[in-house]
Structure formats: C-alpha cells, structure tokens
Write a structure and sequence with these properties.
The protein has 389 residues and is an all-alpha fold. The protein has 18 helices and two strands. It has one domain: Growth Hormone, Chain: A. Helix content is 74%, strand content 2%.
Length: 389
C-alpha cells in the first residue's frame, strides 16, 4: 500500500481539511451549474439551436470530467494542494465571464478552458476527504463532500438568475475560498514508486468498469432531465424564476439524499444502497416530467426525485475508492469525472432529439437509461473495508 509524506501546517485536523475542500466543491459546482439555467438566454443572445446550447455542456464535461482520471494521475504525482485550492478559482473566472463573449465560438473556447479548473479540483478534493475521514464514517464524510457539490449546484441557478451581464461579480467568491483552502490543506506528495500509465489504466477493470457504467447511465438520466427542464418549463409558459427554483430544489435534495445514502451505506453496505436508490427513482421521475410548477406536488416531488436519484452518488465514489485503496484520487476521478463526463459528452444527443421531437420526449428517453443502470448495480460485488494511505 502506498505511503505519503505530509507537510505539517496549521489547521491540519481532518475536519478542517475536509471542510476547506468541501467549500471548494460548493463554489466550483456552483459555477458549473450556471450554464444550464442560462440556456434559453444564451440561445437568444447567440441565435443558435438547442443542440448548440447543450453542446456547451458537452464541451464543459469533456474538459472538466472526462479528463479527470488523467488529472488525478497528475495530482498523485505532483501533489494536490494547488489543484484543490485554485481549481475552483479557474472555473469561476471562466464561467462568470461568459456574458462578455462577442460570438459563440469564443464562448465555446472559454467554457472548454474553464472546465479544466473543475477537472483539476475534483480528484484532489475527494482524495483529501478520503485520507482525512475515519474508516467507520467514510461514507458519511464522502457524502458531506458530495453534498457540498450538490449544494453548489443549487446555488448556481441563483447566480444565473442575475443574468449574463452581472455574473462576473460572483467570480470573487472563488478567489476567497481558494485562498482559505490553500492556507488549510497540507501538501500531499506520494513517496511510493510511481506507477506506469499502463498500471494506472489497470485500475479501470473488473467491478470498477461495471460501477462506472452504472454511474454513466444514472448520470445521463439526471443530466438529461436538468438540460431539458428550462426548455420544458419555458414551453409551458414559465420563466427563469421557476427554472431556477426547480433546479435549486433538485440540487438541495441531491445533497440531502447523498448524506442519507452515504450514512446508510456505512451501516448496511455500499451495493444495497446503489441498487435500491436507482430502482426507486424511475416511476417518480416519469411523473415529474409531466408535472409543472402550477401543481401543488411539483416542488415536493422534485425534492423526492432529486434525493432518490442522487443518494447513490457519494456511495459510488466510496465504492470505487475501496475497490482501489492505493489510488483514491484516480478512483475518485473515475466516478466523479469520467462517469459524469462521458454522460455529459453524450448530452448533445438529447439536444438533437429535443429539436427533432420535443424537450419532454427527450427527457423521457434520458430517464429510461436508469433501467440498465439498475441491472449493472445488481452485478456489483460489495467492496472490502480498506484503509487509505
């Protein structure tokens, strides 16, 4: 098992470190959640199709998520401190400036560059939490870190509600949180023999591949719904306010569901939570798509679906870490980045389907992918409890 040296610094307690990177997760994912609710406004500003707007999410997913395993390897080799602290700063400076882009090509480039900040942050932040957490509460600590991100997703639509012209002021928040994180987190640098690229690729095999496939399908369903929601509600006569409220409730519910799911997985096991969380979601998701904010049950149902579909997210991260305990950053990046990234890359297909049919139809097709996700979850072995270096 690999070992590492940690530079002794002030405020190095596990709770302080986890809190610092969780705040980083919150603001980073808040920036990342800006694009979706601004879809209709960006479409009007640049005069492009729904497919072109969803392509922005695919580009962001490519640089922020698909590249995460590679960035996790870089983090293990070079140290994680700067990546955990300055990744959200980079993301924020990019995405809060999208309103200043004069043409769509520049917007695509800015979104691509901004995504790298998020890609650097996630594997480093998850590894800090994994190494800081007590083994008996690893699922809970991972879920709290995940909840920071989902809370940020709730905050992102609030940022977006000010419109493109005023977004840039929110970039200052990331600068402050980045400085705090850099002051608190230790500089972790592994001292074990460095593995070859082939050896790192060897991590992605067996149950890790099955777990990843399950997460991709689950992520595609969730991302597809969120991407289509603004267009669905606008077509039904609602505005940015209802879109922002709905996305915020969905994200807050995701945070709550993740905490509950993570804690339950500490007590009954990881795989039972992965199975039940996804299976329970499908019928509720279908009802939600045909509901709207004018119905009394819409917001409570949004909360219930958000909590259910995302209760398995932190559990999947911990499961991957326990499958590969010597490389928690890389394992984390496979679940946090590579799975979401591949789903995000494919989301432009949902945009094409929405242009050819309707956003409602596209959202329904997306959630049907929860069915094979359940099948893959039932094939997973329960991981052994592991100590992390």
């Amino acid at each position: 098992m690999s070992t590492g040296t940690v530079t002794v610094r002030t405020f190095q307690g596990g709770a302080a470190i986890a809190t610092a990177v969780t705040l980083g997760h919150l603001i980073n994912d808040a920036y990342g959640a800006i694009l979706t609710p601004l879809g209709p406004e960006l479409q009007t500003k640049f005069g492009v199709s729904i497919a072109a707007i969803t392509l922005l999410s695919s580009i962001f997913s490519l640089t922020s998520s698909v590249l995460q395993p590679l960035l996790g390897v870089i983090g293990e080799r070079l140290g994680s401190r700067a990546m955990a602290a300055f990744g959200p700063v980079f993301t924020g400076l990019g995405l809060t400036l999208i309103g200043f882009m004069p043409w769509f090509g520049m917007l695509v480039l800015l979104v691509a560059v901004a995504g790298l900040g998020s890609g650097f942050f996630h594997p480093a932040g998850a590894a800090y939490v994994a190494r800081s957490s007590p083994q008996a509460k690893r699922g809970l600590w991972a879920s709290l870190f995940s909840a920071g991100g989902t809370a940020g997703m709730a905050l992102g639509p609030v940022f977006a509600s000010v419109g493109l012209a005023n977004l840039h002021w929110f970039g200052l928040i990331g600068l402050v949180i980045g400085a705090v994180s850099y002051a608190i987190t230790p500089d972790y640098r592994p001292t074990a023999k460095r593995l070859t690229v082939k050896a790192y690729l060897g991590i992605f095999k067996g149950p890790m591949v099955t777990l990843w496939g399950m997460a991709v399908l689950r992520s595609f369903a969730s991302i597809g719904y969120n991407a289509m929601l603004p267009f669905i509600l606008v077509a039904r006569g609602y505005g940015l306010r209802e879109v922002a409220i709905t996305l915020a409730i969905f994200a807050v519910a995701s945070a709550v569901g993740g905490i509950v799911g993570g804690r339950i997985s500490d007590q009954i096991g990881r795989v039972p939570v992965l199975k039940s969380a996804i299976l329970a979601t499908l019928p509720l998701f279908a009802i939600l798509i045909y509901s709207n904010p004018g119905q009394w049950w819409f917001y409570p149902l949004t909360f219930l679906v958000g909590a259910a579909v995302n209760s398995s997210v932190p559990v999947g991260i911990v499961t991957a870490q326990e499958y590969a305990p010597e490389h928690v950053a890389v394992a984390s990046s496979i679940m946090m980045g590579f799975s979401w990234g591949v789903a995000g890359l494919l989301i432009f297909l949902v945009g094409f389907l929405a242009d050819a049919t309707t956003p409602t139809t596209a959202a329904l097709v997306s959630i049907l992918l929860l069915l094979p996700s359940v099948y893959l979850a039932y094939k997973l072995p329960e991981p052994p409890k592991q100590s992390f270096a």
